[in-house]
C-alpha cells in the first residue's frame, strides 16, 4: 500500500545529537563570549546540515533536531506569557543520573502573544524538500513534572482556571504553527506512559494528585489544544518512559491507560516506546481504532548497537496480532537528545539507526 501522508512508514521522534560545534557555541554564548546572532548563525548552519543528512538517508519527515533548545520541554513552555525560568531544589532523579535543576514555573496569567518557536519552524520549512515536522511538549508538561508548587496560588487559586488558560494558550500555539504552514505536529507526552508505573502513581498520590484524574484532565487538555487544527494537519503523540543521557524514569505496559489514550484523545497517530521489556507487550494495541496509526519505536536511541533486522521484523509481525499492518509505522523509540547533553552514542551510530529504520520499512512494506 502506497503511504504518502505522515506518519511515514519510516519516521523518527525528532531530536538529534547536538554537533560539537553547536555545543561549543552554546557554551560560549552562556559565558558571554559570542553574541546571540553569532550563536544563531551556528544553529542555522548545523540545522541545515542535519536537514540534508535526514533527506540523504531517505527520511520523509524532517526536524531541526531541536538544535535551538536545551530541553525537549522547558524551552517551549518558557515561550508562553506568565511563565519564567527557575531552579528546582534538586533535579529529576532518573535511573542512574539526576538532571539539571532547570524548571519553568507559572508566575502570571497564562497566554500567548508570540511564540519564538514559530520562527524556528519557518526556518525548517524553508530549508527542506520533504515534510517539515514540528515537535512540542504536550500540555501536561507544564504541571505534571513538579505539580502545584510550580503554579502560583496567588495567580491561580483554582487549578481548574489554570488548566483552562493552559488549554487556550496551547490552542493559540497550534494555530500559530498552522498559520506558518505546519501540517505535521507532534506533541511529546511522557507522563501518561509513566502513570503505568505503580511507583510513579504512588508518587503522584503522595503529593496530592490523583493519577486517574490527571489522565482525564490531560486528555481533555490535549483535545482542547488541537481542537482548531486544520483538517489537513496530522497530529501525533509521542510516549516514552524518560530519556536523559540514555537513562529512564519508569516501567510498565500501556494497558492501564490504553482505552483513554486511543479512544479519548483525538490525535491521528501515536509514537510508542517499544524498545525494551519495560514497555510491556503489544496487547494494548487492540484498543487502537481503525482510523488511527501507531509508530512502533522498536529501535532504541539509548545505545549505538544496531538491533538485528530479523528481530525487528519479527516484532512488527507480532504486533499485527493486535493491529492491522497498514496501521503500523516504524521509528526509534525516542529522540536521540531529549536534552542537549544527548544519549550515549555518537552521530555515526545515530545516522546508522535512522538509515536502518528507512531500509527496514522499505522491506516490510515493499
In short:
With 366 residues, the protein is of the alpha/beta class. It has helices at residues 20-30, 36-56, 74-77, 117-126, 159-179, 191-194, 198-206, 211-226, 258-263, 309-319, 347-364; strands at 61-62, 81-87, 102-111, 131-132, 134-137, 184-189, 234-239, 269-273, 293-299, 328-332. Helix 5 (159-179) links the parallel strand 5 and strand 6.
Q: Uncertain spans, ≥5 residues at pLDDT below 50?
A: none
At CATH's second level, what is the architecture?
Answer: Alpha-Beta Barrel
The residue-averaged pLDDT reads: 95
- The multimeric state of the shown protein is single chain
Q: Helix share of residues? A: 25-40%
When the domains are counted, the total is 1
CATH topology: TIM Barrel
Task: Give the biggest beta sheet.
Answer: 6 strands, parallel
The helix/strand class is: alpha/beta
CATH class: Alpha Beta
Principal-axis shape equals globular
Keyphrases for this structure?
366 residues; six-stranded parallel beta sheet; alpha/beta; globular; single chain; TIM Barrel; two-stranded parallel sheet
What does this structure look like?
There is one protein chain. With about 375 residues, the chain is an alpha/beta fold. It has a single domain (about 20-365), classed as TIM Barrel, CATH 3.20.20. The chain has 11 helices and 10 strands. It has helices at about 20-30, 35-55, 75, 115-125, 160-180, 190-195, 200-205, 210-225, 260-265, 310-320, 345-365; strands spanning about 60, 80-85, 100-110, 130, 135, 185-190, 235-240, 270-275, 295-300, 330. A 6-stranded parallel β-sheet has the order 5-6-7-8-9-10. The chain has a two-stranded parallel sheet with strand order 1-4. A two-stranded antiparallel ribbon has the order 2-3. Helix 1 runs antiparallel to helix 2 and helix 5 runs parallel beside helix 8. The N and C termini lie close together (about 10 Å). The mean pLDDT is about 95.
